[in-house]
Design goal:
heterodimer, A: Rossmann fold, 6-stranded mixed sheet, 9 helices, 12 strands, 39% helix, B: alpha/beta, 11-stranded mixed sheet, 10-stranded mixed sheet, globular, binds adenosine-5'-diphosphate, binds magnesium ion, ATP-binding (chain A)
């Protein structure tokens, strides 16, 4: 589904990603862990097409298309979703209106008719129940004055509404209490099926108690320095990132 | 009717005798020649079959105007306006005044349809009465009979002068005197048409009253005059929509709107203005110098102005409220959007005179391109205006870094029981916001539209439903191509 080959990228002349290789197949859940500043959010931004980031070399294939050739909105249309680490606020724009616009724009990209008000409402109701999201939250301006947890839940709610092929979740678990993490994980697990994939960026292994990954990658200093099964998370939790750092510096 | 015609032909003769220049002898002419002088004013008055007091009123305004100077205090730049290079009267070629919409010149109807405001559609939209003004002559009025049953008068100003001279005489110039300011004086001298609304005591107008203005013939200044009177305990919501086609030359527009709300009377006045703003290089476009003022004459009266201003090369406009009655309320809700080389200097004046008066100002300025957008507001609390309250919120949103947003709030408080609050913010549409929308599949243009409509929502919410939808589209259209 997603094939990243030797991806180098940076911003304002600063090299951040230094040769990422990653292959994600339909139905898989991958986790990316790593210390702060190692380039996790940069990878997410580059995949989503944020234009401030320059890709110097490398290629990314997504569902048979050259992802780097597509605009951010085309990537969304192709089924790529990014749950932001820091979701933005748009004052005065109701969350419902925003999601409806997003859904219909994505449908338009796919040559589908826009959802009428009735169908949209039905879908909303269904996903609201699933994600434990309240109507009052959706009537408010997009993310404006939302608590950290509300913002993250809103991200996952949008994911549920848009039903992407690949969901990249950038520290969606940060700042959430354990109940909220369960809800978020539940939402992600509901989306999981043989055709969809998830790339979960996280700092802590506790999310991975609820979203069981097929593979865990450790990103450090712009490179994936270690990949392994879910048990790797436990090892990281126990020993910290320092052991990775020491292993890497030996390799360097 | 016959006597009226007789009187008019007498006036006509009297006026004709005065003509020094030859052109006006051709009384069938559809347009006056360029330029402004007393003869032109007489010509207009004759064309419109006006009573003598009206002509005198015009001439007085004109003579005063001659001694006035164009104001220069606004944050606006434009080449000098040549008032002698303007045609002050032109009428669409129509033999008889139409009794119904079907009699209207199909060419004019097509123009309306192109603008998306076909009268046919408007007619079908039950609940909306339309008084359309093309150039200087009112060409169609609907729903009149329905309104007449309630004693509501809704007609063109020309017709009001003929049919309800006592009302016009009583109120015309009572809020904006003919000598009020340079552009108001000019308007008073040469206004050609506009709307007149009169809501009798205790009547709640059952529909939105709506007028579409549009500038048609080339080089024609448009000088509308609108007067709305709400008698005690009455209510009316009035919509003014404006569109003008592409045009290279600058066109002067100087309208005057007067509102009178008696005790417990309420007037809600909404405008969507999208006249030709000039091209991307700043050539052409309408110069819009408007005087809008309302008076809350009686206690508990209320006047609310809502405006969405996206058009014109230059906008000079300060819809104001004189809060004379005790407990009266004035409101001003505004969205002003400027793009390319447009300039807007707009705001309001709230003059608190009565006791316990309240006013609320919500101004949202959106600037893009190389444009300049200024809010200019004055809140005045007179010495007898005990317990006056004002709240002002002025927000500016910038798209790009070549445009300007300016806020000029003036406050004059002469009674220390007054509470005047002012808040202002300036923000930019962030790359973060755009990227967030893009990531959800929303292209940048649509994203900008969502963001600015969110920004303007508090004002948009004040508009009647069908108008709000149109206004939202308009904001989006006005910013096309300005980001990304
Ligand atoms: N917009 C930016 N401008 C400059 N440096 C940046 C920018 N974004 C990220 N970086 C830098 O790139 C590195 C990786 O950041 P990031 O991808 O956010 O890491 P992570 O998500 O793993 O914590 C950090 O050193 C960070 O300071
Ligand atoms: Mg990060």
């Amino acid at each position: 589904m997603l094939t990243i080959k030797n991806l180098h990228a940076g911003i304002e002349g600063k090299k951040i990603l230094k040769g990422i290789n990653l292959e994600i197949k339909p139905g898989e859940v991958h986790a990316i862990m790593g210390p702060n500043g190692s380039g996790k959010s940069t990878l997410a931004s580059v995949l989503a097409g944020r234009k401030e980031y320059e890709v110097s070399t490398g290629s990314v294939q997504f569902l048979g298309k050259d992802l780097l050739d597509l605009s951010p909105e085309e990537r969304a249309g192709e089924g790529l979703f990014l749950g932001f680490q820091y979701p933005v606020e748009i004052p005065g724009l109701s969350t419902t209106n925003f999601i409806k616009t997003a859904l219909n724009e994505v449908r338009k990209y796919r040559g589908q008719e826009p959802l009428d008000a009735v169908a949209f409402l039905k879908l909303m109701k269904e996903k609201m129940a699933l994600m434990n999201v309240d109507q009052s939250l959706l009537s408010r301006s997009l993310n404006e004055g939302f608590s950290g947890g509300e913002k993250k839940r809103n991200e996952i709610f949008q994911m549920a509404m848009l039903q992407p092929k690949l969901a990249i979740l950038d520290e969606t678990d940060s700042g959430l209490d354990i109940d909220a993490i369960r809800i978020v994980a539940n939402g992600v697990n509901q989306l999981r099926n043989k055709d969809n994939a998830v790339l979960a960026i996280t700092h802590y292994q506790r999310l991975l108690d609820y979203i069981i990954p097929d593979v865990i990658h450790v990103l450090y200093n712009g490179r994936i320095v270690k990949s392994g099964p879910k048990e790797l998370a436990l090892e990281l939790e126990e020993r910290g990132y320092d052991f990775i750092k020491s292993e890497v510096s030996v390799e360097d | 009717m016959d006597t009226m015609n007789d009187i008019n032909s007498d006036i006509q003769k009297a006026v004709m005798a005065d003509y020094k220049y030859g052109f006006v002898t051709d009384i069938e002419a559809d347009a006056a020649p360029k330029g402004l002088n007393e003869e032109i004013i007489r010509f207009i008055s004759v064309k419109k079959n006006e009573p003598e007091w009206m002509l005198e009123w015009r001439l007085k305004a004109y003579r005063h105007w001659l001694n006035m100077e164009e104001p220069s205090w606004a944050n606006l730049k434009h080449p000098p306006i040549d008032y002698q290079d303007i045609i002050y009267y032109s009428a669409p070629k129509q033999k008889v005044k139409p009794g119904s919409l079907d009699e209207i010149d199909p060419e004019l109807r097509r123009t309306f349809e192109k603008l998306g405001i076909s009268l046919e559609e408007q007619k079908r939209l039950s609940g909306v009465a339309v008084d359309a003004v093309v150039d200087s002559v009112s060409i169609g009025t609907t729903f009149k009979a329905q309104l007449a049953e309630l004693g509501i008068i809704f007609c063109s100003m020309s017709e009001a002068i003929q049919e309800h001279p006592e009302l016009v005489r009583k109120y015309l110039g009572s809020v904006v005197p003919a000598t009020d300011n340079y552009f108001a004086a000019l308007n008073s001298a040469v206004f050609t048409d506009g709307s007149f609304c009169y809501i009798p005591e205790g009547v709640r107008c059952p529909m939105e009253l709506s007028t579409y203005f549009r500038i048609n013939a080339e080089n024609t200044g448009q000088f509308e005059r609108t007067l709305i009177v709400a008698e005690p305990g009455s209510y009316v919501s009035y919509l003014e929509g404006c569109t003008a086609p592409m045009r290279d030359e600058n066109q002067l527009h100087a309208a005057v709107v007067e509102l009178v709300a008696q005790e417990r009377g309420e007037i809600k006045y909404s405008t969507v203005q999208n006249w030709y703003p000039g091209d991307k290089q700043g050539n052409g476009g309408i110069y819009n110098f408007v005087t809008k003022r309302g008076i809350c004459k009686g206690d508990h009266a209320k006047i609310s102005w809502t405006q969405v201003e996206t058009g014109s090369a230059i906008t000079w406009k300060y819809p104001s409220v004189i809060l004379k009655g005790d407990h009266s309320v004035g409101e001003f809700y505004s969205v002003a959007l400027t793009n390319h080389y447009q300039q807007a200097d707009t705001g309001t004046k709230m003059m608190h005179i009565g006791k316990n008066t309240r006013s609320r100002i919500v101004s949202k300025g959106i600037s893009a391109g190389f444009s300049n957008n200024s809010y200019r507001g004055l809140v005045q609390v007179g010495k007898n205006a005990a317990n006056a309250r004002n709240f002002s919120q002025c927000d500016s949103l910038l798209l790009g870094d070549k445009c300007g947003a300016h806020t000029f709030p003036y406050i004059e408080v002469k009674n220390n029981t007054g509470v005047v609050e002012h808040e202002a913010t300036t923000s930019k549409i962030g790359e973060d916001q755009l990227f967030y929308c893009n990531q959800r599949g929303i292209d940048t243009e649509t994203a900008v539209a969502l963001i600015i409509n969110g920004f303007a929502r508090e004002v948009m919410n004040q508009l009647p439903m069908e108008f709000a939808v149109e206004a939202q589209k308009l904001l989006a259209i006005s910013l096309e191509g300005s980001v990304g």
